[in-house]
Amino acid sequence: MAIEAVDTRRGLRSRREPEVAGIAGALRRLDWVLLAALGATVAYGLWAIDGITSRDPGGSALSRQGLYAFAGVVVFLVALLVDPDNYRRLYRPIYFGTVGVMVLVLLMGAATRGSRRWIDVGFFTFQPSEFGKVLFVLVLAGLVAARRNAIGSPRTPLEVIGYALVPILLVFVQPDFGTALVYLSALGAVLFVAGVRWSHLAILATVAVAGALAILWLLPAAGVNVLKPYQAQRLTGFTHPANDPRGATYNLRQSIIAVGAGGLRGRGVIGATQTGLDYLPEHSTDFAFASLAEERGFFGASILLLLYLLIVWRALKIVASARDLYCAVVAGGIAFMFMFQVFVNSAMTMGAAPITGIPLPFVSVGGSSLLTNFLAIGILQSIHLRRGGRRRP
Amino acid sequence: MADAGPSRRFLPGDPRVAEPYRLTPQLALRVAVLGFFALALFSVLFLRLWALQVLAGDKYLAQANDNRVRTLRLEAPRGAIVDRNGLVVVRNTPGTRLELWLSDMPKTWNARLAELRHIAQITGIPTRRILAEIKKHGEDPLTPVVVQRGLKQDQILYLQENQPQFPGVHLGESYLRQYPYQSLLAQVLGYVSAISPEEYKALKKNGYQPTDQIGQSGIEASYDTYLRGRDGKAQLTVDSRGRPKGAATVQVSPASGQQLRLTIDINLQRAAERALTYGINLARTGSEGAYADGGAIVAIDPRDGSVLAMASNPTYKPSVFVQRDPAKLNAVIGPKAAANNFPAFNRTIQVGYPPGSTFKPVTALAALMEPGPSGTGRMLTPYTILPCTPDYKAYGQVFNNWTPLIDQGMDLRTALAESCDTFFYRLGDEFYALPPNRGHPLQSWANRFGLGEPTGIDVAGETTGLIPTPEWRRKAFSGKQYGELDRTWKPGYSIQLAIGQGDVLVTPLQMARFYALIANGGKLVTPHIGADVELPGNRSQPLRVLRRFGAQPPQPVSIDPTALQYVRLGLEEATHSPLGTSSGVFGNFKVDIAGKTGSAEKFVHVRGLPNAVKLNQSWWCGYGPFDAPTIVVCAVIENGGHGGSAAAPAALKVFEQYFGKQASATLKASD
Prior knowledge:
Chain A is mainly alpha-helical.
C-alpha cells in the first residue's frame, strides 16, 4: 500500500504539470532510493572484495573490479537512455543473437576448468551466459507482451517455456548448472508476473518438482545420469555435510566454518584464516559471501543483505508502477532473478542451499557478472523513468 | 515545455505502446506475493547467519583455529656472483633463522613479553627491537616474524632443547651472503636485506612476499630478479599450541637463484683498491695532499664498455649487512657514516668531481670539430700555434697558467702534453665569442661525449654530473637570494670550462667512457658490469649460460679520425715527452700508455678546519696499449694534490697488474 501513497503524491504533482520533460524532469523521475542503494552496494562490494582478495597471490582485485564498476556505470547510463519498448520490438533478434553466441561458446569457447563458459576477447574474457540472464528476461517478456491478450490460454506458458528451454539447455550443457537454475527462476518469475493462471502455475510447479526428483533420484537409479556426479553430490550434499569431510562437501564445511568463525564483528582481513590460508576455495567468486562473513562478521554481512533487500523492494515497486505489461514483466523477472541469486549464493555458503557456481551480485570478482548487474538495475531505472502516469482510470 | 506536444515528450505517453498497462488487482496481488516471498527468503538468510555467527560462533571459531596446516616458506638460495674468470665473489652459507608465529605465542601480554624477553636474552637482540619488528609486521598471523637470520649453533641447540618454553618459535632454514674477498667490490655488490613495507607494496604483484630478502643497492639490487630464485612451499601440521606434528611435506621445491657473472676481474679489482690506498698514502706523504681521504678508480674495456675494476675508497665489509651489528652498520650507512667519509658511496658513479685538465681533450676535440666563427673551416687545426703564456688576460680578469715558467707558442699536441692552461683558455674564450645562434658547442660536444649524461651502467644510483650552460645557470640561480649577476653566464665560465674548472662535475666512470671513446676511435660504449646469468656447472654437467647481457654496440660519435689522432698523440706525449705531465710515471713503463693528468680545484670542507678550503682533486685518465687499447683507467684521489703526484701513480699500479709487468722506479711528476 506503499504503492498507493507514492501514487498519490505523483498524482498531485502531475495535476499541475502533467508531463515533465527534459533532463531535469528525468532526474526527478529517477528512483533515487534505488540509485542510492546501487551506489552503496557497489561501494560496499568493492570494499568487501578488497579485503577478501588482499591475501591472494595476485594481490587485491580492487583495481580491476573498480575498473569494471566504472564500465558498469557507463552500461547503467546507456540502459537508462534506451526506452525498454525497443527491447520489446527486438525480442526475436535478441533471442537468436543470444542463442547464437551461446552455441558459439560451446563450439569454440576456451575450456576453463572443464567447462566452456567464456569467450576470450583479449582484454576481457566475456561470459555470455551472464549477460544472457538479462537478455533472457527481455526476450521472455517480449513473448508475453506479444501474446498479452491470450495470457490465460495454456498455449502462452507452453510457448514461453518452449522458447526458454533452448538457452537453458545451452547453459546447462556448458556445464553451468547454477546459471541454468537462475534462468529457470527467471522463467518462473516471468510467467508469474505475466498473469498466467494459478492453475497453470500449479501444474508447472508440479512438473518441475517431479522433474527434479527424476533427475536426482529416479533416472540415476535407472542408469541415466543427467547431472554429472559432482553436480548431483553438491546439490544433495548440503543436506548432510558431515558425510564426506574431504570430498564434495569439503568446500561447504570450510565455508560454514568461515561464516561461523566470523562471529558478530568479524575477524578482520588479517585475522581471517579461512580466507587467508585458502581453506575456503573460490573465496573471491562463489564463496565471496562466506569470506565477507568471516572478515566482517554478522554486522558486515547483514549490511550487505539489507542493501540487497532494499534493491529487491525498489524493484518490486517498479513492477507495480510500470507503464505496461512488458515493462512490468521485465522488472518482475529481473527482481526475482536478482533475489534468487542473492539467496542461492549466500544460503549455499551457510549450508542452506545447494552448492552452485552463482556469483554474488556486486561482490564476486568478475566483470561479466558486475556489468550484467549494472545493466539489470539500469533497465529497472529506465522502466521507472518511463512509468505510467495515472493508474486509476 | 510543460504543454509540449506528445511528439516532443521525453517520458511516458509513448504512442507505440498500444495498450497502456494498469496496475490491476491481480498484478498487485502477485507483486505482494513476490514481496512476501522475498521477505521470507531474507529472513531465512538472517536467521541462518545469526545461528552460525552469533549462536554457534565460538564453536566455529575454534574449528577455524584448529585448521592448523601451516604453509611454510622454503627460502631459495640466492644466486652466487662470480667474476669474469669464475672466481666466486659472493656465495651463500646456510643459516638458521628464528621466526615467530604470532598466533601460536601466548595470548596474554605478560606471558608474551616474558617469552620475548627470553628470546632477547638468547639472541642478543633487544626486546624493544623485536617488539618493533612485530609491530611493523602488523600482527599478521599467517606469516612469521623473522627475528634473526644467522643463529649460532649453541643458540639453536638451546632453543631446540627448551622448545616447550617457546611457543610460536620456529627455526627455519635460511641462507646468508658470504664474501670470500671481504671488502673487495663492496659498493658495487651492494647488499641484501629484508623487504620494507613500501617496497613490498610496490613489488607485491611481481610475486614478492612480505618476509622476502631483496637486493638493496648495487648489483644485488639491479640483478635481484635473477639472483633471488623462487621460494618453495611446504605444509606442516601443527597442534593447537603451534608445535609441529610430523615432518613438513614439500609442495613446491625452492628454485635457487641464477649465478651472475660479472665483467669484473677480481684480481684487477684488488690491485685497483690497493692502488687507491697507495695513491692516498702517497698524496698524504707528499707536500700538497695532506687532506687526501678518499678516491675512486675505474677500469673499463674501451672496446665494449665492460667494467674490469671499480674501486671506491673509503670502503667497508659487506658482511656488516649480514651480521647487522648496529655499531658497524652505523659506521657505513648510519649517523657515523659522515665521520668515515661515507664508505657506502660508490665514488666511481655516485660522486661528481670537477675534472680539471682531464677535460682538456674534450675542449680539444670540440675545437677541432667545430666550424670557425664565420661558419667555415674549423676553430682549431692540429697545426695551429697558439701562445702558451704564464697568464691569459681577458674581460678585466687574469687567468693563470698552472706554471708561470713558460712563454712560447705551441700546437695542440704539446698543449695537451704539457697541459697548457692558457692555450685552452683562449679556446674557451673563442667558444664564448661564437655567435649566439650557434648555441653552446663546447657543452654540446661534452654531452655528446657522454658527460653530463647517465652512462647507462647496470648499477643503480649513478649521478649525471653537470655540464654547465647559461640556461642551467639561470635556472640554478633563480632563487630570491641570488641577483641578476649570479644568473648571468660570464665569459670567465666558458674560459674555466675549457680546462674543466668551474661548476662542471663528472663522475670517474663518465671520464673513463670518454677516454674509451678516444681509445676506440670515436665510439661511445655503454659501461656494464653484469656479463651473464648462468647455471653453475659441475662434474657431470657443463656450465650453461641462461641469458647473456652482453655489451651494447658502441655508438659512433661522428669525429674526424684525424682530429682524434692528434688528441691521441698529445696524450701519448703527455706520458712520454720530457715535459709531459705524467712522463715521470709512465715514461719507463714497458707498455705504451697514453693519458692525461688533472688537478681540479674544489672547495672542500676538511675536518678540523672551520671554512672550506680550495684543494686539488688529483686526476689521471688514460689507456693502453697506445696502438691497440684494451684498458682505460681513470683515477681520482680526493684532495690528493696534482694529478701526477697521486692519481697517476695509482693508475700505474692498475696497469701493472693488468699487463703483468712492473714499472721501474718512478720519477716525480707534475700536473
